[in-house]
Amino acid sequence: MLDFPRWKTISICISLLLGILFAIPTFLPQKTFDQLPGFAQMKVNLGLDLAGGSHLLLEADIADLNKTQLSNMEKTVRVSMRGETGPDDDIAIGDFKASGSTISFLVRDQNQLDDARDRLFRETQGAGLTGQRDWQIDVVDNTRIVMTLTAAGRDQAIDRAMETAREIIDKRVNELGTREPTIIREGSDRIVVQVPGLQDPKALKDLLGRTARLEFRMVDPNGTVGPEGPLNVPIGSEFVRYAPNEGGGAPGEILSRQVMISGDQLIDARQDFNQQQLPAVSIRFDSAGSNTFARVTGANVNKRFAMVLDGQVLSAPTINEAILGGQAQISGSFTVQTANELAIALRSGSLPVKLDVVEERTVTPELGKDSIEKGAIAGIIATLSVLMLMLVVYGRFGVYANIALAFNVALIIAIMAFFNATLTLPGIAGFVLTIGAAVDANVLINERIREELKRGRRVFQAVELGYSEASRAIFDANVTNVIAAALMFWFGTGPIKGFAVVLTIGIVTSVFTAVTVTRMFVAHWLRSARPTTINI
Amino acid sequence: MRLLKLVPDDTNIDFLRWRKLASFMSFFLVAVSIALVAVKGLNLGVDFVGGQSVRVEFTQTMPPIDDIREKVGEIGLGEATIQQFGSDKAVSIRTALPEGDKAVAERAGQQLVAGIQKAFPTAKTGSVETVSGKVSGELLRTGAISLALAILGISIYIWIRFEWQFGVGALGRLFHEVALTFGLFAVTQMQFDLNSVAALLTIVGYSLNDTIVVYDRIRENLKKYRKMEIIPLLNLSINETLSRTVMTTVAMLLALGVLLIFGPDVIFGFTAAMLFGVFIGGYSSVLMSTPVLVWLKVGPDSFVPRTSAGIMGGERVERKDDGAVV
After folding, report:
1. Chain A closest-CA separation from residue B195 CA (Å)
2. Cβ distance A255 to A270 under 8 Å?
3. Residues A213-257: pLDDT tens digits?
4. B141, B166, B209: best to mutate for the A interface, most A CBs within 10 A
């Protein structure tokens, strides 16, 4: 007990010092914090439930993604069946059918079946680690080619789409000018967006819920639309509804299926005003897009083209002249705000998959502030009362335990700050539990020392036994808590995970401070004072 | 300075004398809790059933709950659950998921907020939560799984570290604690959400500390006093650890009591559950987790085989491994 090696004392003091240093930035006001050098800018973030802000959980619409994949493959098939060298290389196909995750079509000349299959094979790829391809190609009845999207192909597509979606969301949220948003993928098909301090999540939701798939398509002059819906839809065209509040009473337009130009070719979009001084969105195409746009508009003067956003017609103006220079304006019944949102959405690119908001939590900053203030006051009173109790019951040993407890709090905060962890309400629960465990560890040790003294042991031996005997129970209790924390971390979601993280950190630090640090104090005191009796 | 002793020296209470009564009490309370949960049900929050929940604070006098219910009903999101929040002029208003579950969060929450602001212009909405049915189902499932696994994992560890009887005892005790806490939620109809699960997990963690401290002492005494009868031995172990149990319980009750009175409303339910957990934890560690060991026939042989029955010399080796003081 008495020999507490110097190296041990030094390393303990260094770790305590580091703990305090790392804990300090968390308590600095934001202004001072911003002035710290980069390496010191580590702090515990407060969760949205404490600080206020919005949390959104977005889920990919897999069915929608599946549909897009199918229609993309249909396009690929049509293009690849058109020969590279000329019309004599074409493979005649027909009777396209799509259902579920399968598309099939008829190859008119049976002799070309193998050739058709080879071409498709080149268009599909391996997916996943099992060597499975993304599309499975079968020939049925010697006439039909059936292509089925495999599970691996689907997963790969989801993964790619989600990664792109995450990047786009990142751009969009940043464009809103919000501070320190967190955007992370969760599971295979979800994205969590957390924006601190955001009080009204409506703008954010409007922005993220918008796929922003922009298309310019020609209006089919042969189609006719009645007041209720389509009357005559020619082959190769389809009926597309107007977006709400657009179209001036008309339900929709008959549009050619062919997309003249799409939003992928945009290089810029911003909120602007049209000739009537109404809010609009000005867009600019890249050079290839500009050329296409100029060519198509030039060839279709006096005809109408439609601007389609996310499958709904915004407007369908008549082309007065060829539009050169790659500039265009999207009009519709916008307000400055909605025009700006659309501009942001177009600028950041279209989402590869439709995203639905499946969970939303918003806490206003006032409520968050109120929670923190009250929580801090209550926390301080609670801590002080426990410290007082320890002092009254264990005297000098209580003081040591209290100092260790203070270090424990600093260390937990330091480690959380180091990992940039977030403290949430359940996290505070974990905090309370570890403080409880730390107090308990010292109670165990001190009670054991009392017991050994009562049995007539001498001071040094009693202290020694107190520590060694109590350590076993402390160890067992903490290992079980680590097991619990690990299982919660593994299987739990969100708040439970937060609880588990704080608990794990707290267990390690509380054992260190409650056992090792107090022991250091006690050992040094015993060595210098050499008391023959102790008051405990 | 004279130090305070919460438990006088030489306390020797025959706790095991009440073991039948205590066991009966525990069984009775667990049964009542299960029945309460079955009959009254838990007041599940949006985390677990889906829907939207808005916290509304009234700056002036709060209108009668019936008024609020009527006004909320007019918004057209169906029947609302309205509950007073903490002690303030705040209520939480909860409505079920609208039809067509998909992407509900897009609108319903906003609709509710707008409706409330129109009906009560002076009221402030503090927080809005909207959870779709799919997500809430997952949260309920993962919450239940992590709770069950934590309890099971802990019991297995105790079984390995101690003996199977202790593992069973710990399992029984954790089940007891969790069941009673569920009972509390059923009887008070406090909202049960993800934070409540965190409270439950904390109670489990805390109970565990208690159990292990008592069990550790029992193991120690079993090795030390090999000839002692089991009941006096358990009594001795409980009495020896009593001052620790009381001290820790008092410290926790003190801290949680302060949090309950002065803490923010958001953690009221959480703190109340914890307080209750610590309270029954104190009872369990004295009167509940030890009688189990009597029935399961724990004896000195559980750790160290008698030399006549065991292998020669095995006794000494095992003692050393366990680090027991001879």
Report:
1. 6
2. no
3. 888 999 998 888 888 888 888 887 889 999 888 888 889 999 988
4. B209
Determine, for residues B1 and A535 on separate chains, whether the beta-carbon distance falls below 8 Å.
Answer: yes
- A496–B197 C-beta distance less than 8 A: yes
| CA B299 to chain CA mean position, Å | 30
Helix, strand, coil percentages for chain A (3-state, nearest 5):
55, 20, 25
Which pTM was predicted?
0.79
Which residue is it, tokens 């389609």? A308
Nearest to A499 by CA among A512, A481, A479, A475: A481
Q: What is the pLDDT of residues B250-272, one digit of tens each?
A: 998 998 899 888 888 777 888 88
pLDDT in tens, A286-321: 888 899 889 989 999 999 999 998 889 998 889 888
Contact across the interface for A430 and B198, Cβ inside 8 Å: yes
Q: Residues near A351 by Cβ (< 8 Å), separated by ≥ 6?
A: A164, A165, A168, A169, A210, A211, A212, A213
Which residues of chain A lie closer than 8 angstroms to B259, CB-CB?
378-379, 382, 432
A148 by DSSP, 3-state: which? strand
C-alpha–C-alpha distance, residues B301 and B41, integer Å: 45
Residue A282, SS3?
strand
Give the span between the Cα atoms of A483 and A503, in whole angstroms: 11
Question: Residue B183 above 50 pLDDT?
Answer: yes
Query: DSSP code of A180?
Result: S
Cβ–Cβ gap B204/A484 under 8 Å: yes
Give the minimum alpha-carbon distance from A244 to chain B in angstroms, rounded to a whole number. Answer: 16
Instruction: Pick A486 or B185 by higher pLDDT.
Output: B185
Distance, in Å, from the CA atom of B101 to the CA atom of A410, rounded to the nearest integer, reads 45
Cβ separation of A374 and B135 shorter than 8 Å? no
Q: Dump strand ranges (E) for A290-428.
A: 305-309, 312-315, 327-330, 355-363, 422-423
Whether residues A359 and B247 touch (CB distance < 8 A) is answered with no
- Nearest chain B residue to A382 by CA distance is B255
Among B205, B259, B323, select the one facing A378 at the smallest CB separation. Answer: B259
